[in-house]
Amino acid sequence: MDALRVLLTGHEGYLGAVVARVLREAGHEVVGLDTGYFVGCDLGPASEAVDTVAVDVRDVAPAQLEGIDAVVHLAGLSNDPLGSLAPELTHAINVNGSARLATAARDAGVRRFVFSSSCSIYGASGADDLVGELAPLRPVTPYAESKVVVEELLHDLSRDDFCTVSLRNATVYGYSPRLRTDLVVNDLVATALLEGRVRVLSDGTPWRPVVHAEDLARVVRGTLEAPVPAVNGEAINVGRSEANHQVRDLAEIVGGELGVRIEITGERGPDPRSYRVDFSKLETLLPDVVLTWDVAAGVRELADAYRAFGLTLDSSRSVFNRVARLTELREVGALDADLRWSDRHAVRR
Predict the structure, then answer these.
(1) Cα gap 282→271, rounded to integer Å
(2) Which of 231, 259, 280, 333 suits 249 as a labelling partner, its CA being 20 to 30 A distant?
């Protein structure tokens, strides 16, 4: 297909750095939109620069989307602990901001809108059956609830000339120059290298599907390039059925690859989520998109990057942890109580 001009929100974040690269390698033009919370939080060489609309998603206007063919919407408060830290901000940014962006995109003549949702919306679905896209949604956190609301909004906005797709991503892992260590596999690898052990602060029984960041980026590309009738109005689980793992199994893989001991504390943690996910719809709708990464290969990739670029225990717990990073920016006065910059341009420099 012809090259697209894609507005990628959250392009300065963990996933955005990988998605931008994959889309550019496919010949698409990428324009970024980001408020800049995580600028400078790099492990290794910084991502290649893209033209950027430096704006909070809560403030976006149709004029900023003129000439855009498609929007890939990654921006938002990006995990369950962060969403629970400030539920009202999760709604303001993840729900109201997404609604504003989607409406602005439609009004500006954008033809395709791809939303980064989450398998977290399945909540405590258990392990008895694989949950598909028609399974009951059981969100248990403000973050997951926000994803459900936005999916419903986009489904209502969908029409022939405004194709909307919600990608329900498994928990992501893998190296990105804009690293996150508050993701289960990334965290287990960091702990293994920096503390000489893999430590699971629960009984390790919850189920989590996982997907490598690069594989997810390939799905984004495939969704943008698919025929509109194939994907319009769809919600699609993103991952591989063989990558449904219990947390203790992920720990075993990390420990085995890196040769460190495993500690499973055994208590019941506060997080009730547990779900095994069916990804067959993805294979049906996007048969040309092949997911190639498995956890063992991702562990080796992460370990190599952590060693090569000098990850430290302090940076893994602060710079590359989303809750810690935003908390620090608020404490030093860079961000106000509503997570808006007090002097954004100075901070971004």
Answers:
(1) 27
(2) 280
- Nearest 5°: the CA angle 200, 204, 205 is 170
Say if residues 14 and 34 touch (Cβ distance below 8 Å).
Answer: no
Beta bridge partners of 244: 209
Instruction: List the structure tokens of 58.
Output: 């809560």
Rg (CA), the chain: 19
Let me know: does 152 contact 140? Beta carbons within 8 Å. no
203-259 confidence digits (pLDDT tens): 899 999 999 999 999 999 999 999 999 999 999 999 998 999 999 999 999 999 999
Helix, strand, or coil (residue 349): coil
Tell whether pTM > 0.85.
yes
Strands 274-277 and 261-264: unpaired
CA atoms within 13 A on the CB side of 62: 7
The CA-atom distances, in angstroms, between 266 and each of 54, 121, 186, 196, 204 are 45, 25, 21, 19, 7
DSSP code of residue 47? P
Q: Average pLDDT, whole number, for the chain? A: 93
Directed axis angle between helix 142-157 and helix 98-107, to 10°? 20
Q: What angle do CA 12, 133, 89 make, to 5 degrees?
A: 40
CA atoms within 13 A on the CB side of 36: 17
Residues 6 or more apart whose CB falls under 8 angstroms from that of 348 comprise 36, 39, 54
Q: Can you tell me the distance from the alpha carbon of 124 to that of 293, in angstroms, rounded to the nearest whole number?
A: 26
CB 275 within 8 A of CB 122: yes
- Give the torsion sign (CA, 339, 168, 6, 108): negative
User: Rounded to whole angstroms, how far apart are CA atoms 256 and 300?
Assistant: 11
